[in-house]
Amino acid sequence: MIKTMIPPPGPPRTLALAQLISRTGDGAYYVTAALYFTKVVGLSPAELGLGLTIAWTVALVLGVPLGHLADRRGVRGTTVFFFCCAAVAVGSYLFVRSFPLFVLSASLYAVAQRSGSAAQQALLAGVVPKEQLTRVRAFLQASYNAGLSVGAALGGIVLLFDAREAYLAAFALNSAGFVVAALVLRRVPPVASVPAAAKGEKAQTVFKDRPYVAASLINLVLVLHVPLIDVALPLWIVGHTEAPAWVLSVMFVLNTLAVVVFQVRVARGVSDLTSAARYVVRGGLLLGAGCVVFAFSGSGGSAWSAVLLLITAAAVQTLGEMVQMAGTWEISFGLAPDGKHGQYQAFFGSGLTVAEIVGPLALTGMLVYWGWPGWLLLGALFAAAGFAMIPVVRWGERRMAERPVTPETDAGASGPAPGAVQGEDTTGPDAHDKDTTGPDVSGELARS
Question: What is the pTM of this model?
């Protein structure tokens, strides 16, 4: 069991280790941040919410341009840079004493998080063969959840002390985690940067790739399950069910541990775009089924029947989440042209940012104020989004077959096999730390 949860040696294991380290700090930060900024800094809940909305909106606007920059300058060096920016942003929280400074620090943190994640996915695409991307991505997701779990436990200890010094220690841990993760990422072989389009030739951007845009919009609907468990579900449990509030902790632990243990196994069935689209359909149906069970949890009865229904719904939704993510990972990589994974992954990941911005308000209105009909509507949206992915993927495959070879795509398509180190633009951030000793993972590998 344990061996199946450990990534193969080489770049996959290094990327997973960096993910584990950085997300451990994030877990401590997520548990403690709201209380620190309201109780210690003195921000009002409204100021906290507004500041975070501004920060994630800035990250949304800058995501694709910074992803494009990562493709041009070298994705490894750019990833390391953004991780260091995240460390600086979290460290600056130690000195925040006003709302404007909070917005500035939070915006730097959000930009560094989102852009660093996109650059990291592009780095993954550059050092792992295409047919193994989804499986390795599953290892990274398992490491992500494992890190959050450990960090959340550490954050719980901080909350027990409930002192300014304890909160600052949590932030210092998060900042140090990003620095260590950046150092770990430098062990990954560098990936060739992509030359700019020839003079007079229009550069093709992700915004002009209509199938990919459509797939990203469908994914936006599917990832509404993220703010669902964070915001709307606690309010539903307290206001519409007989279940005790502690059941939410049980559901969170169930979700986190299930992803850590089973995500890699679930992702094994994804091998190409066709199987990925089928996975998205199954994931959408499971997410929809979970919504139906959630709707029944508010029908009255005993507290224990409500608890049983809630835990059952959470288990179904967790399985749907893992199946859906395995499919969308393959689609996000498979429909993107070589040499443009930075901007394409940034655009695909922006769906989660939009969901985190608009999801809390939309889901609260739909579920908390409308009740069980809102759950049924949300379930229908999940199922419809899943089915819609099949024709969109087929559309994207036809577009890929018709795609002309440009200097940008040719740089990735005609180079060495995936995972091999290629020559780089000597002006990029990877130029002076080229490592040609990184192991080849193509013979060592057999998925959120």
Answer: 0.80
